[in-house]
Design goal:
The chain is an alpha+beta fold. It has 3 helices and 8 strands. It is about 20% helix and about 40% strand.
């Protein structure tokens, strides 16, 4: 009888112990989106309007999960006249709004709009004067691939 009571107490203890373990909360769409962006991306093409722009040297954009980014060979963007309005900078901060998962807000309130994001591609648009600083703003599309 004593063994039966001990066995019952052990079983009750195991049931309580196992049921009280907290399961991991599923990640929010915002967290998933931030994780997807947080890596290094090499620019494959830049298209202001219908024109395709070539770069003098490869451009890589590095997003970190802590909310910082930097652009390697940023000078190539400037040399291609793709940043007259100062939307992009060589480094800064970034965040994605929970209200709009396709809008990436950069430092100084500038933003880019995600048009494609998956395991291998991150494409986005922004608006800037092109080809001269005095010209009207155009939508500039940037296509990137993940750096392995």
């Amino acid at each position: 009888m004593k063994n039966l009571k001990i066995q019952i107490l052990i079983i009750i203890g195991l049931v309580i112990g196992l049921s009280s373990c907290k399961k991991d909360d599923p990640k929010s769409d915002l967290d998933k989106r931030k994780e997807a962006v947080s890596t290094s991306w090499e620019v494959q093409s830049a298209t202001p309007g219908t024109e395709n722009v070539d770069f003098e040297s490869p451009v890589t954009i590095n997003f970190s999960l802590d909310g910082n980014y930097n652009i390697e060979n940023f000078e190539s963007l400037d040399a291609a006249n793709l940043n007259h309005d100062g939307v992009l900078s060589s480094s800064g901060t970034w965040e994605i709004s929970e209200n709009n998962l396709d809008l990436v807000t950069l430092e100084d309130g500038n933003s880019v709009t995600i048009t494609q994001l998956n395991e291998t591609n991150f494409n986005f648009n922004y608006s800037s004067a092109y080809p001269k600083a005095t010209d009207d703003a155009q939508t500039i599309s940037i296509s990137t691939t993940k750096v392995n």
